[in-house]
Write a structure and sequence with these properties.
By secondary structure, this protein is α+β, with helices and mostly antiparallel strands. It folds into 2 domains: 2-64 and 82-217 and 421-426, Ribosomal Protein S5, domain 2, CATH 3.30.230.10; 238-417, GHMP kinase, C-terminal domain (Alpha-Beta Plaits). Helices cover 43% and strands 20% of the residues. The protein has helices at residues 4-11, 18-24, 28-48, 126-139, 163-179, 186-201, 208-215, 258-274, 285-290, 292-295, 301-325, 329-347, 360-372, 398-409, and strands at residues 2-3, 54-67, 77-93, 98-103, 109-112, 147-153, 218-222, 230-234, 243-249, 377-381, 388-394, 414-417, 425-426. Strand 7 and strand 8 form a beta hairpin. The chain is globular.
Length: 430
């Protein structure tokens, strides 16, 4: 921990703190914006907690799915990456039994960590995530304790960059640093976050989001054994590719889409059950094709198509990782496009069948195809239906592409991001 005045001195030094460069890159304008953001958080902290207190910055990244669309829940493989948009906190250890977070744009959170049971009326709230993280840490034998501080986020809600996982891993990171000497390793930290989201927040989710936020960089995860996923950090420096990564929100409503999301997992698993198993990873695409005739009498046709998407995208993850690690970026881009078409045609998560007149994702993909064909890549990003797309855009086309997308979907729904190498962490300014 460092006193507030010391943090201000480090932030205002003539040379940017190494901790900021590690997280946000070395572009002067970006570093200036981050320095101002950090100093602004200090001002909020001082207003809430006067005096020259001991405090520390923590940062937790958003994440972007790169490969393996809807493969994790059937024990498949995924490729994801942490991004430079993050949740930033400035906190001090209190040693009592309360966690107090003043989050910009939201009501202040206060959680009594003596009470760790699920509170039904608290579900779907940040307080539920804090309580769930603390409950799981205590169950696992780790120390929990109080802290107070201020938080701000550049991870847009509804952007598909997983603000909830970033928040969960922020809380785990703070408690790990303040009370557990950093003993909690990234994969376990991710599992703690997932527990909080599943059991306390009330939202079923896989482990991809939390693992990527915890580990940082490009990360490939094999969920063949759900209890012990195999995590591999991919050695590739995206900044050297001369491409930018764009996340474009379609602006559609996520209301009433839970059934659409759940149907993908359920229909894939219905094929596995019809073959005598639980998840598709137990079988092969060849097995599904061999039994296509009999399957049509047991499951619906869309389930068969979604199963075939699972196998194709699961295999593609392995190819994408190999392409990145051999610096075959053109091959990687081709695989991104293949993944997108598979999601559109087989997984069928580009628009909801309940509302076929709303196809914002399809429009975004069609415009991207027209603008980037032969020069970039584009795909459905995350859950789909009314969410976001992802595009890899060559540097010279970025202004034109972003202007066009902003004109269609609104500037607030169009984000340029970069890949950051670190997961949720305490920010070392010195």
């Amino acid at each position: 921990m460092a006193q507030i005045q010391e943090l201000l001195t480090l932030l205002n030094a003539s040379t940017p703190p190494e901790g900021l460069v590690d997280l946000y890159g070395n572009k002067p304008d970006v570093l200036k914006a981050q320095k101002d953001r950090y100093c602004g958080l200090i001002q909020r902290f001082q207003a809430a907690y006067p005096g020259d207190r001991d405090a520390a910055f923590f940062s937790s990244p958003g994440r972007t799915e790169v490969g393996g669309n809807h493969t994790d829940h059937n024990a498949g493989r995924v490729l994801a990456a942490a991004v430079n948009l993050d949740i930033l906190s400035l906190v001090e250890k209190t040693g009592d039994n309360s966690i107090i977070i003043d989050s910009e744009g939201y009501r202040s959170i206060k959680v009594d960590i003596n009470k760790l049971e699920v509170i039904e009326q608290e579900k779907y709230s940040p307080a539920a995530l804090v309580r769930g993280v603390c409950a799981r840490l205590k169950d696992l034998g780790y120390t929990i304790g109080g802290f107070q501080g201020c938080m701000t986020s550049s991870v847009p809600n509804g952007s598909g960059l997983s603000s909830s996982a970033a928040f969960e891993l922020m809380v785990v990171s703070i408690l790990n640093d303040l009370y557990n000497q950093g003993k909690i390793q990234p994969v376990l930290a991710a599992q703690i976050g997932q527990f909080a989201e599943n059991e306390y927040f009330g939202k079923p989710c896989g482990l991809m989001d939390q693992t990527t936020c915890a580990v940082g960089g490009f990360v490939t995860i094999d969920f063949k054994d759900f209890a012990n996923p195999v995590v591999h950090k991919v050695d590739y420096q995206f900044a050297e590719s001369e491409f930018s990564l764009a996340i474009i929100g379609s602006g559609g409503s996520h209301a009433d889409l839970n059934e659409d999301y759940a149907a993908i997992e359920n229909e894939m698993k219905s094929v596995a059950r019809a073959l005598g198993g639980k998840v598709l990873r137990e079988f092969s695409a060849e097995k599904v094709l061999e039994n296509a005739a009999s399957l049509r009498g047991k499951v619906n046709d869309r389930a068969i198509l979604r199963a075939l998407h699972f196998y194709a995208d699961d295999d593609r993850v392995v190819e994408q990782v190999a392409a990145l690690e051999s610096s075959a970026f053109d091959r990687f881009l081709a695989l991104v496009i293949e993944s997108g078409y598979s999601s559109w045609m087989l997984c069928q998560n580009v628009f909801s069948p309940k509302n076929p007149g709303e196809q914002g994702i399809a429009v975004a993909l069609a415009v991207s195809d027209a603008m980037l064909k032969g020069r970039g890549a584009w795909r459905v990003h995350g859950g789909g239906f009314a969410g976001t797309i992802q595009a890899f855009v060559p540097a010279e086309l970025v202004p034109q592409y972003m202007e066009k997308m902003s004109s269609i979907f609104g500037k607030e729904n169009c984000h340029l991001v970069s890949i950051r190498s670190k997961g949720a962490t305490r920010v070392a300014l010195g």
